[in-house]
């Protein structure tokens, strides 16, 4: 079996901060049995020192410490180590504490006393979430390296002029139309624009407009609600909702009917759309790149 595309990560490392040594030792023992690398410390200040010097995947943090406030530690860690996952522990069962911590950026919380099974479940969920985020980040970095403008080779004066024009437009929120004959690299340019845009860390949704059937076009683009038409057995997200916050690449937009292009233009102009059969209008925060084939 070929696993060349599988991204391998080292063993996950965890830091436990709790002023009760027996809790630290218990967590360390339970987590090391699951092959995690675990350090612990009894004070907030020493914990911050370890975090700043080391490289941890997850912080297991007691929210009540003798020297520093757990929520303040949480805020600070989110600033200095934004990609670390944080699970808080508290012996003071308070919904407000948990809500505040989650708002600041905690992934999960455990109310003391908790079982070993509860600990393992929470940690495994957090580590798996981090693995997916890191894997996605690596894929995006590879996409940037593969598709940025430095990797589009060309010395022709007209091509260089096109490079310069597109590079200026890439960091903006402007909708871009790429026009050219088939095989001239329009998709490569679209990927390069995305890689150098302000949305490069968001989703990039590619749609081949030539594959749309006219009778289901609106449903594909804007989604639909249950019962909107025969066969609509449940709500469905459309492409605009899936791509929300990121970049939508509409390849061969000239394949759409004039009516469809008009509806698309209204979405681009007003940044809103309505799913088929719905009463409410939805916002669309999307950067759009389109192509048409010049015959």
Question: What are the key terms here?
Answer:
single chain, 295 residues, alpha/beta, Rossmann fold, five-stranded parallel sheet, four-stranded parallel sheet, 11 strands
Under the CATH scheme, which architecture of the largest domain would be assigned?
A: 3-Layer(aba) Sandwich
Read across the widest sheet, the strand sequence of neighbours is: 2-1-3-4-5
Per DSSP, the total helix count is 10
> Main β-sheet, in a few words?
5 strands, parallel
Task: Find the CATH topology of the largest domain.
Answer: Rossmann fold
**Distance between the first and last residues' Cα:** 44 Å
Total domains: 2
Can you describe this structure in just a few lines?
By secondary structure, the protein is an alpha/beta fold. The chain has helices at 21-32, 44-53, 70-80, 95-104, 116-147, 157-169, 186-195, 217-222, 239-242, 258-270; strands at residues 13-17, 37-41, 58-62, 85-90, 108-111, 176-180, 204-208, 247-251, 272-273, 282-283, 287-293.
Structural summary, described in words:
The protein has 295 residues and is of the alpha/beta class. It folds into two domains: 13-142, Response regulator (Rossmann fold, 3-Layer(aba) Sandwich); 154-293, P-loop containing nucleotide triphosphate hydrolases (Rossmann fold), CATH 3.40.50.300. 41% of the residues lie in helices and 17% in strands. The two termini are 44 Å apart. Residues 1-9 have low confidence and may be disordered.
